[in-house]
Amino acid sequence: MTDPISDTGLAARLRRPATPQYRDDQAGLGGAEPIAVYAPRDAAETAAVLRACRAEGQKLVVQGGRTGLAGGARVLPGEAVLSLERCTFAPEIDPVAATLLVGAGVTLEAAQAAARDAGLFLAADLGARGSAQIGGLIATNAGGPLALRYGTFRQQVLGLEAVLPDGRVIRRLSGLSKDNSGYDLSQLLIGSEGTLGVITRACLRLHPQPRGRRVALCALARLDDALPLLQRLRRELGPLLAACELIVEPLLSAACAARGLRHPLPGSAALVLIETAGMSPEADDAQLEDTLGALLAEAIATDAVLSQSERESATLWGLREGCSHYLFEIGPITSLDLSLPIPAIPRFVAEGAALLAQIAPDTRAHAFGHLGDGNLHYVLTGHQPEPVLRAVFALTAGMGGAITAEHGIGLDKVAFLPLCRPPDEIAAMRAIKAALDPDTLLNPGRILG
Amino acid sequence: MTDPISDTGLAARLRRPATPQYRDDQAGLGGAEPIAVYAPRDAAETAAVLRACRAEGQKLVVQGGRTGLAGGARVLPGEAVLSLERCTFAPEIDPVAATLLVGAGVTLEAAQAAARDAGLFLAADLGARGSAQIGGLIATNAGGPLALRYGTFRQQVLGLEAVLPDGRVIRRLSGLSKDNSGYDLSQLLIGSEGTLGVITRACLRLHPQPRGRRVALCALARLDDALPLLQRLRRELGPLLAACELIVEPLLSAACAARGLRHPLPGSAALVLIETAGMSPEADDAQLEDTLGALLAEAIATDAVLSQSERESATLWGLREGCSHYLFEIGPITSLDLSLPIPAIPRFVAEGAALLAQIAPDTRAHAFGHLGDGNLHYVLTGHQPEPVLRAVFALTAGMGGAITAEHGIGLDKVAFLPLCRPPDEIAAMRAIKAALDPDTLLNPGRILG
C-alpha cells in the first residue's frame, strides 16, 4: 500500500500510525486496515487532505471518537481514515452570548467542563461522553436523555465550520441564533454522518445551569398508562421536566436480580423515571410533589419513589442505567434504537412481542428508553438475522416510526433505510450527495449505500 | 398570455383569477401580472402543477400569505403563481404526542387557536398572525419575540410534507422528535424561501400552555448595560425568560410623544422589556421580582416598572409595538432586520450612527428588536439608496453578523448576500439548488439571484 498523498508533503505532517483502533466503531464488526490515517489540525489542513485525496481518487472515512453504533466509522477496504482527533481548538466561551466555540475533536466531557467552569450548561449528555467527540456527535445528531428538554445536538448547534468534499470551507461560527441569509448548510450537515462534509469546529448554544434536580420513579399497572402520565407531566411541569425514561418490565426486575439490588417498586408493568431541573429548587420540588400526588390519586401511577437527596437521585438513575449494563452482560444481543410516534409505543411493544413469538420464538425482547422523545431502545437477545431485523423495522415503519432515532444509518442499516423513507425521498438525498460529493469521496456506502 | 397547463385539465380545477393582490408581498415594490394563479389543495395537486409547468418550462413563484418583507413572493414577468391558499387541511392535534398536523395554507392565528383549544401552545407569534400562513412561515423560518425561549419556526417543525421541483413528494408527518434515518430534508427546506420545494403540510411541536405572564420594563443608563442585564436575566430566570426586547432611545420617547402617551421611564439611554412565563405564577413572580431587585441594586438597571395585571402587561407590550407603528407613520423608511453577535450590539449602534453621519448625514437610524436573539431591527429614515444599504450591511457582516435575521433574502437582498456568505458557501447553495431544481423552475432569482 502506498500513501496516496505522500507526494504532496502533507503526509509527513498529518499521517498517524494505522493502529487497530482505527478499524471500526463500537458496532465492533471489524473493519479493514486503512490505506493511511490522516489527522489534520484545522479546516485548512482538512481541505488539503480532501483535495489531495480527490485528485488521487482516494476514498475517505471520517472518524471522531468512534463511539458510534451503526458502523459509520468502520473502514472499508481501500479507504483512508480522516480522524479529527487533533482538531482540538480549546473551547472558547462567550458568557454574554452564552455560546461555546469548540474544535470537532474535543470530547463531550471536555466541552461540558468548559461550559460548567463558566457557570453555563452544555445541554447534551450521553454515556460515551469521555470519548465521543463534538464533531461526531453533531455529524450523527446525537441524542441522550436531555434531548427531551433541550433537543438533540441539532438544537445545540448555532453554526459550523466544515470542509466540503471538494475542499470548499463553510463557516458560521459567530454564534448568531437567528440567521436567514441563504440555506442553512449547518443544518444539512447535522445528521448527515460525514457523507456531505467534514465538521472541523462548531459554535454551540449554552444554557443556564439548572439549580439542583429531583428524580422520581413511578410504577404503572399497565404500559398504556405511560401515555396519560407523560401528557400530565408535560402539562404540569412544562420546562421543569428534564427527563422522562421508560423501562418495560420484566427488564428492571431482571437487572436488579442479576446485580443483587432491591427493586424499589416490584410487581408493576412498567416504570417511568422522571427528572425535574429548574431555577427555583423549593418551588420546583413542590410542583413535582403535587404532580406525583395527583398521578397517584388518579391511579395513573400505582406507586412512586421520590429522591430526597442528590445521592438518591443518582441511585434512581443507576437503576435505569443498570438496565443497559445488564443487557450487555447477558450475552449476545441485538440493540435497536427505534423512533415511534409516542402514542404508538404500547401497541408497538405488544405487537413486537407477538411478531417475535411467530418468527423468532427463542428471542426475548426488552424495551426501555426515552419515553418523552418516542425513542425506544429495543433489545433482542441473540445475534438476530436480517429477516428478523427487517420484520421489526417494518413493524416500526408501519406505525409511522423510524428505524433509528439516535444512532444513525451508518453501514449497518443501509439496507433497511427504504423501509422508512420512500423512494422519492431517497432519490432527493442521492441528488444532494451527488451535488456536494460527485466522486463519492467521503464516507462512501454510508446512509445511501 | 396563455395558460401553460390548460391542456392538462388541471387549469380549470386549480386556476384562480389573477387579481392584483397576487403581484407582490408586503415589501410593496409592485410585481408583474402573473401568467396564471394556481391554487392546489394538496401535495398531489401541487405535484401535478409542478410537473406540468416543468414540461412547459413555466417558472413559478410560490405564495403563502404574502406577508414577507423581502420581495420573495413578488411576481417577476413571465412567472405563474403557485398559491397555497387552498392547502388548508384543518389542524389535527395529538394531545399525547403534543403535535399539530396542519396544512400549509392555514393562518398562524388559526393554528394557534387550534392548539389553545386543546390546552396546548404553539410557541410562535408575530404581528401578521392573521394572514401569514404556516407554509410561508416555515419556508422563511419566521421568528418573532417568542423565538428567544422557543426558537424560530425551525425549532417548531417536527417534519414536513413538501413537493420537490420535479414533482417528487417527501413526507415526514408522524411527529417523531428524533429521527436520524438519512438526511433531514425538512431542515433543508426550512428557510429556503420556496426555492427548493413547496411545503404542503407540516407537523409542528406543541408546548404546555404557560400559566400567566409578567412583564417588566427596565431603564438603562448606557446601552452597554444591556449585555450584563441579559446575562443576568438568563442566569437567574432560565426558561422563565420568554422575551427580552431592546429599544434604543430616543425611539420610545419619540413614539410616546407622537401618540400623546406618558413615557414610563424617561431619560434613559435604552429600555429593555422582559417577559416571564412559567408554570408556577407565584414562584415565578417572586423570581422576577428578586432578579429586578438585584439588577437595580447593582445599578445595571437604573429604574424598572413591573406589570401588576394582565392589562398592565399588555400596556407595556403596547409601548414596544408602538415603536414599530410610529416608524411606519413618520414617512418613508428603510427597515433592516440585522442579526448580530449579542456582545457586538452596542458597538454596532455606535458605529452605525458614525457611519451614517458620514455617508448619509440627513438620515436618522432607530434601533430596537429582540436583544436575546441578537436580532436588531435597524430602521433608517427615507428610502435609502443601494450604497447606504451596502455600507450598513458591510458593517454588520464585519462584526460577524448577518444581513437578515428573520425576513430572508427574497429578491430584494440578493445583491447583498455575498457580504455575509463567502463564495464557497454560495457555491454550495447553488449546487444544492441545481441538484433539486435543475431547470430553475421554483422561485427563480430568489436568494441566489
From TrEMBL, chains A, B:
<protein>
    <submittedName>
        <fullName>FAD-binding oxidoreductase</fullName>
    </submittedName>
</protein>
<dbReference type="GO" id="GO:0022904">
    <property type="term" value="P:respiratory electron transport chain"/>
</dbReference>
<keyword id="KW-0560">Oxidoreductase</keyword>
<dbReference type="InterPro" id="IPR006094">
    <property type="entry name" value="Oxid_FAD_bind_N"/>
</dbReference>
<dbReference type="Pfam" id="PF02913">
    <property type="entry name" value="FAD-oxidase_C"/>
</dbReference>
<dbReference type="InterPro" id="IPR036318">
    <property type="entry name" value="FAD-bd_PCMH-like_sf"/>
</dbReference>
<dbReference type="Pfam" id="PF01565">
    <property type="entry name" value="FAD_binding_4"/>
</dbReference>
<dbReference type="InterPro" id="IPR016166">
    <property type="entry name" value="FAD-bd_PCMH"/>
</dbReference>
<feature type="region of interest" description="Disordered">
    <location>
        <begin position="1"/>
        <end position="27"/>
    </location>
</feature>
<dbReference type="InterPro" id="IPR016164">
    <property type="entry name" value="FAD-linked_Oxase-like_C"/>
</dbReference>
<keyword id="KW-0274">FAD</keyword>
<dbReference type="InterPro" id="IPR004113">
    <property type="entry name" value="FAD-bd_oxidored_4_C"/>
</dbReference>
<comment type="similarity">
    <text>Belongs to the FAD-binding oxidoreductase/transferase type 4 family.</text>
</comment>
<dbReference type="InterPro" id="IPR016171">
    <property type="entry name" value="Vanillyl_alc_oxidase_C-sub2"/>
</dbReference>
<keyword id="KW-0285">Flavoprotein</keyword>
<dbReference type="GO" id="GO:0016491">
    <property type="term" value="F:oxidoreductase activity"/>
</dbReference>
<dbReference type="InterPro" id="IPR016169">
    <property type="entry name" value="FAD-bd_PCMH_sub2"/>
</dbReference>
<dbReference type="InterPro" id="IPR016167">
    <property type="entry name" value="FAD-bd_PCMH_sub1"/>
</dbReference>
<dbReference type="GO" id="GO:0071949">
    <property type="term" value="F:FAD binding"/>
</dbReference>
<feature type="domain" description="FAD-binding PCMH-type">
    <location>
        <begin position="30"/>
        <end position="209"/>
    </location>
</feature>
<dbReference type="InterPro" id="IPR051264">
    <property type="entry name" value="FAD-oxidored/transferase_4"/>
</dbReference>
